[in-house]
Amino acid sequence: MANSSLMDKLVSLAKRRGFVFQSSEIYGGVGSVWDFGPLGVELKKNLKERWWRSMVYEREDIEGIDAAILMHAKVWEASGHIEGFTDPLVDCRQCKKRFRADDERLKGVPGEPDAQCPVCGSRGTLTAPRQFNLMFKTFMGPVEDAAAVVYLRPETAQGIYVNFLNVMQSSRQKIPFGIAQIGKAFRNEITPGNFIFRTREFEQMEMQFFVKPGEDERWFEDWKERRMQWMKDLGITPEKLRFHQHKPDELAHYAKTAFDIEYEFPFGWKEFEGIHNRTNYDLSRHQEYSGKKLEYLDPVTQERYVPYVVETSLGADRLALVVLADAYHEEEVEGEKRVVLRFQPAVAPIKAGIFPLVKKDGMPEMARQIAADLRARMPVFYDDGGSIGRRYRRQDEAGTPFGITVDGQSMDDGTVTVRDRDTLKQDRVAANQLASYLVERLDR
Ligand code: ATP
Fold first, then answer.
1. What pTM value is reported for the model?
2. Closest to 331 in 3D by CA, of 216, 423, 258
3. For residue 432, how far is its CA from the centre of ligand 1 (angstroms)?
4. Which pLDDT score, from 0 to 100, does residue 130 have?
5. Which domains are assigned to the chain?
6. Pair 207, 311: CB distance under 8 Å
7. Residue of 155, 228, 271, 319 to test ligand 1 pocket, by largest number of atoms within 8 Å of CB
8. How far is the CA of 276 from the centre of ligand 1 (A)?
9. How far is CA 221 from the centre of its chain?
10. What is residue 3's predicted lDDT score, i.e. its pLDDT?
11. How far is CA 13 from CA 35, 106, 338, 399, in A?
């Protein structure tokens, strides 16, 4: 399958089946902002819940929070984002298009006479790179002046740093411990694209782990390995996962060491989670800018220090793209092409499709009753439209792991067939045992 065509197929499947729609589509769309539809919202919610379970519920040393998107403007001075969260950009004076200076399509050295604009083809019209801040700015309150400027947060991490003391004191945690958060972040990306890979509004799942200076490298290794294992447990093809270590010139302004977890997308290997050793940069800067002490007093040694932070930062939307791309398969079944999303059952938006074989002889009634009973336990979908083969195919495209069919025999002995999306094997199961049969197989 050609790579670009795989992306086209994913985008079209996502729209057709209600995973992802372009924002404000009836107005022609808005650049690199996407809406999650009925199936997409379930997929993303399942991914977020899985992350929250492993990061917060299963660990006694991590607490969750939900901080506001709008924060004091000084937060972004302290964090270095006002000064340093910039991308170098190049403008074409002829066609007015803007590019990131590292855009692979640019030919020659921008600012020099022979450099060529990749859009209009003009030579010598590209400016030398200039720094452009990626934060969205807005105003708080009724007056739109410099004093009222606030920013939409470009990362969720700062909401964790400014609450470090509140969380530690209220939850009685001791170092080492972490704070986790899932929330929206905004970046005015200049060359966004590749569907939901790089968008201007997105969700992050971030965890900041506070440790004693000197123990940061050990914790960094620990979190790096744990996060990679989490991806494998999610069922992502291991051969399509790898680490990429940031070289000194790639490191963000706050980082001592950084590793990305990369996935081999149809458009190449790209980051989708970052593990960063942020040292005590953020807490020290907030201490300096706020005038409040953000130290930890070790209860045993009576030592005072500003903790180091190991961060894990994963994009929920980008993870959804990884899961979608990895799940997508085209295959031949009984001489017909089928498109199937092989989601791990635990993250599949719909768990079972329920079908009466024909629309008579009491089959629809029994199937509807089964759907109603199961609905209390899991999202299911009742469908009596079209041939049974077509109904299976529709659920294959939605990534639904099980297809339950009520047939003639069901009327006699109360059993139904359960078709497995991946093996296509069919089991006969008593209708009153269905819930436990499915639950047992869904937690994979
Ligand atoms: P990139 O180099 O791709 O812009 P980054 O290095 O700036 O990413 P981080 O600041 O480390 O990214 O953000 C952590 C994670 O947040 C990324 O791995 C990604 O999953 C997600 N993320 C960052 N920017 C975006 C975006 N514009 N759209 C969607 N997800 C994003």
1. 0.93
2. 423
3. 46
4. 87
5. 3-75+139-325 (3.30.930.10), 86-133 (no CATH), 350-442 (3.40.50.800)
6. yes
7. 271
8. 13
9. 22
10. 54
11. 14, 32, 13, 11
| Ligand 1 atom 13: residue of nearest CA | 313
Q: What is the pLDDT of residues 120-170, one digit of tens each?
A: 999 999 999 988 899 999 999 999 998 899 999 999 999 999 999 999 999
Instruction: Look at the block and give the residue holding tokens 């022609």.
Output: 28
Per-residue pLDDT reduced to its tens digit, 371-414:
999 999 999 999 999 999 999 999 999 999 999 999 999 999 99
Dist CA 347 CA 235 (whole Å): 10
- Ligand 1 neighbours by CB, cut-off 6 Å: 155, 187, 189, 198-199, 202, 204, 271-274, 313-315, 317-318
Per-residue burial over 81-97, b if 16 or more Cβ lie within 10 Å, else e, is bbeebebebbbbeeeee
What tokens does 283 get?
């807490």
Residue type, 84: G
The CA-atom distances, in angstroms, between 262 and each of 148, 183, 239, 283, 322 are 39, 22, 11, 28, 10
**In DSSP terms, which residues pair with 123 in a beta bridge?**
116
Tell me how far apart the alpha carbons of residues 157 and 59 are, in angstroms, rounded to a whole number: 19
**3-state secondary structure at position 334:** coil
Amino acid at 197: F
Residue type, 407: D
Q: What are the angstrom distances between the C-alpha of 158 and each of 113, 253, 394?
A: 43, 14, 43
If one counts every other C-beta atom within 10 angstroms of the C-beta of residue 183, the result is 18
Closest CA to 195 of 246, 283, 265: 265
For residue 107, the model assigns a pLDDT of 87
Mean pLDDT score of the chain, rounded to an integer?
95
Q: Within a 10 A sphere around the Cβ of 114, how many other Cβ atoms?
A: 10
pLDDT for the residue numbered 4 = 57
Pair of tokens at residue 268: 């190449």
